[in-house]
Design a protein that fits this description.
This protein has 7 helices and 26 strands. It is α/β, with parallel strands linked by helices and 404 residues long. It has 4 domains: 157 residues, Molybdenum Cofactor Biosythetic Enzyme, Chain A, CATH 3.40.980.10; 58 residues, Molybdopterin biosynthesis moea protein, domain 2 (Alpha-Beta Complex); 84 residues, Beta Complex (Molybdopterin biosynthesis moeA protein, domain 3), CATH 2.170.190.11; 77 residues, MoeA, C-terminal, domain IV (Beta-clip), CATH 2.40.340.10. Helix 3 packs parallel to helix 6.
């Protein structure tokens, strides 16, 4: 068995970012930039008013009250071709361009108006409520950088930069192959010795949540020829993920059968719990991860290995999520030689400290504790017994659930 850290390094080593494609900014959220993006315009392109009020010369309102003659009205999207001269003002609205000659905005609350005369009763300093040209950014500035996953805020910025199209890395296409005679899909007739499959659907949801495109290859029965036929459907995907069939039982066929059909295995056992029988390699040139069959093992291993693999393919830099610490809410016994990942609930105590409480039962077939967990407590190999109140490292489920 190899360590979790070594397994991740070896799994990621052969993976490279997928090629770039051009997409509309309306379709770019969640995608990873393949190049730096520079502004095509200055924002704002000219000085504008930040408030509704009157554009004036600061010198004319240095002493108040001051009466000024209104010579123009400037809404947003319009302008004034004249010049604001001594003793003059222009009625102006938020976002409208500042007229030549004016250098300050008096907000309307500090004025009274009669006809074309405005009386300023509170004089602002020079430049008040004026957004200068280029206050946000200037043409040619690089504002979005390659290897960044685009957020809705980034989309708004790209639009303001006048960039309707962006070059992003292609979404990873992940083939999902489940195995086993004992599983049926939800809603199908269930035999006396069968169970409802959750792995394939959970994995597809996980891939989608991580920004990839799941490609369902179906559930292969425990038959060598059938397994080969189902696996052949992986042609063209960027990553093949199987679930089940990688252990040492007589019916765990994935390693044995696919090894005769082009599967090259790097490793297949990790010193961890849950998820010891995890396999990494390539199948006919396609990177492959063989996940365990137990539902909890499948999803825990997906968080630890599949997510980083997809991030590498999507073009993100290697930047593992930082570990945080929390106070144990109950005693834990000494750990054995495998690194343990305990499903746990997280709460904040009255003193503001985070307290984490692992579930008493950590059986890898139980989905309910996983679904109600907030995080995983990490127990290193041979960790000594830890009493309640000890500090432990935890991995948060992003967004309080699975990756978003």
């Amino acid at each position: 068995m190899i360590s979790v850290e070594e397994a991740l390094v070896r799994l990621l080593a052969p993976l490279e970012a997928l090629p770039a494609e051009q997409v509309s900014i309306s379709d770019a959220v969640g995608r990873v930039l393949a190049e730096d993006v520079a502004a095509r315009r200055t924002q704002p392109p000219f000085a504008v008013s930040a408030m509704d009020g009157y554009a004036v010369r600061a010198a004319d309102v240095a002493k108040v009250p001051a009466d000024l003659r209104i010579v123009a009205e400037i809404p947003a999207g319009a302008g004034f071709s004249g010049i604001i001269d001594r003793g003059e003002a222009a009625r102006i609205f938020t976002g409208a361009p500042l007229p030549e000659g004016a250098d300050t905005i008096v907000i309307q609350e500090d004025t009274t108006r009669e006809g074309d005369i405005v009386r300023v009763v509170e004089g602002p300093p020079l430049g008040r409520y004026v957004r200068r040209a280029g206050l946000d950014f200037s043409e040619g500035e690089v504002l979005l950088h390659a290897k960044r996953r685009l957020t809705p805020r980034d989309i708004g910025l790209a639009a303001a930069m006048n960039r309707p199209w962006l070059f992003v890395h292609r979404r990873p296409m992940v083939g999902i192959l489940s195995t086993g005679d004992e599983v049926v899909m939800p809603g199908e007739p269930i035999g006396p010795h069968q169970i409802v499959s959750s792995n394939a659907l959970a994995l597809a949801a996980f891939v989608t949540a991580c920004g990839g495109t799941p490609v369902g290859l179906g559930n292969a029965p425990d038959d060598a020829d059938a397994l080969r036929r189902f696996a052949a459907g992986a042609r063209g995907v960027d990553l093949l993920v199987s679930t089940g069939g990688v252990s040492v039982g007589e019916h765990d066929l994935v390693r044995e059968v696919l090894s005769e059909d082009g599967l090259k295995i790097d490793f297949w056992e990790i010193a961890m719990r849950p998820g010891k029988p995890l396999m990494s390699g390539s199948y006919r040139g396609t990177p492959m991860i063989g996940l365990p069959g137990n539902p909890v093992s499948t999803l825990v291993c997906s968080l630890l290995f599949l997510k980083p693999a997809m991030e590498r393919l999507a073009g993100l830099p290697d930047n593992p999520d930082p570990l945080i610490t929390a106070r144990l809410g109950r005693d834990l016994r000494q750990n054995d030689r495998r690194q343990d990942y305990l499903r746990s609930r997280l709460a904040r105590n009255a003193d503001g400290a985070l307290e984490v409480t692992p579930f008493e039962v950590q059986d890898s077939s139980m989905m309910r504790p996983l679904a109600t967990s907030d995080c995983l407590v990490i127990r290193p190999p041979h960790a000594p017994a830890a009493p309640a109140g000890s500090m432990v490292s935890i991995i948060m489920f992003p967004g309080g659930a699975w990756p978003l």
